[in-house]
Specification:
Mean pLDDT is about 85; it is low at about 1-25 and about 30-45. The protein has a single domain (about 45-314), classed as Rossmann fold (3-Layer(aba) Sandwich), CATH 3.40.50.300. The protein is an alpha/beta fold. Helix content is about 40%, strand content about 15%. An 8-stranded mixed sheet has the order 3-4-2-5-1-6-7-8, sandwiched between helices. α8 links the parallel β6 (about 180-185) and β7.
């Protein structure tokens, strides 16, 4: 099930055969606080993994991923973002970095995950995905196993891994979604987005190990619309898929988001007092509470084991 990986031109310092850096923020107050309970319970050895998923593209998933990562970093958590939107990645643009190496080099075996990992100007570290590379959309089991190992190595060095997953139901996308303990499903109030979100939820409901699913309704035009949208999708999910979902929150429609230009700082930093940033901060606070709760629970199977289970079922 492997793929042949085509050649790609890199920055002036060199070319690599196929298409396919670590700086970590210091230990924060939160990490020290978590360690205070170590006499009663062993510290968690792995990062909490949160997958951001959507049924269709264009819901604002990468926008949310980058801003949530920054918000969690501001709360003294060590955060890494892994862009698994294979072939259509854009998290590096939102973080304002131009990495020399990407997921392409990691899955092609040219670079280790620590060589691919880069710092961003805003705190979180990033494993950038490949953009415009068709072969990355057709990864085989061998490459997904390599990704599972890489995520496990990152999970040993961070508190939180945010995985920006590809939209839709492709097996590679679902495997990365099911690597997480928490899934943040991003949708819009439009019927097409809701229909596609339900399709992903229905697929997740058929798994033996069902992740905790939270819904974020993006681009709402009225404060009540987010809750109403959630109630609508929650009822359908409960009745027809038998899977409960939970409400993480809503983000308002904001022209300042759609009109943003490359090179601008993420919204949570550039305009922290605007309505959208306040909504994002609320999501961060709720997500942080869930991360802390997960830290306090007994250790479960690691991210690599969860992924390998899904790969064997593929």
């Amino acid at each position: 099930m492997g793929i042949a990986v085509a050649a790609v031109k890199q920055q002036p310092r060199g070319l690599v055969k196929s298409e396919l850096d670590v700086t970590l923020p210091g230990q924060g107050f939160l990490r020290r606080l978590l360690r205070r309970g170590s006499l009663e319970q062993p510290c968690r050895k792995e990062a909490v993994v949160v997958a951001l998923a959507s049924g269709k593209g264009g819901t604002g998933k990468s926008f949310l991923t980058t801003n949530l990562a920054i918000g969690l970093y501001q709360r003294n958590l060590r955060v890494a973002v892994v862009d698994c939107d294979f072939g259509l990645a854009n998290a590096h643009l939102l973080f304002g970095v131009n990495p020399r190496y990407t997921m392409q080099h990691l899955l092609g075996g040219q670079r280790t995950v620590h060589e691919v990992l880069v710092p961003t100007p805003f705190g979180p570290s990033l494993v950038a995905g490949g953009s415009g590379i068709s072969s990355l959309a057709e990864l085989g089991a061998k490459h997904m196993q390599m990704l599972a190992r890489a995520l496990s190595q990152l999970a040993d060095r961070f508190d939180v891994l945010l995985i920006d997953c590809a939209a839709g139901l492709a097996p590679q996308s679902m495997i990365t979604v099911l690597a997480a303990q928490h899934v943040v499903m991003v949708t819009n109030p439009e019927i097409a987005a809701l229909t596609d979100a339900y399709a992903v939820i229905k697929c997740l409901s058929r798994q033996i190990e069902q992740p905790n699913i939270q819904l974020v309704v993006n681009r709402v035009t009225d404060p009540q619309l987010g809750r109403a949208t959630f109630e609508r999708l929650s009822e359908v999910s409960r009745r027809f898929a038998g899977l409960p979902i939970h409400y993480l929150g809503a983000v308002p429609e904001d022209q300042a988001v759609s009109h943003r230009r490359l090179g601008q700082a993420p919204m949570l930093l550039e305009t922290p007092e605007c309505e959208t940033s306040r909504a994002l901060s609320g999501l961060v606070a709720t997500l942080e509470a869930q991360v802390l709760e997960t830290f306090s629970q007994p250790n479960t199977r690691g991210v690599e084991a969860r992924m390998l289970t899904q790969i064997r079922r593929w």
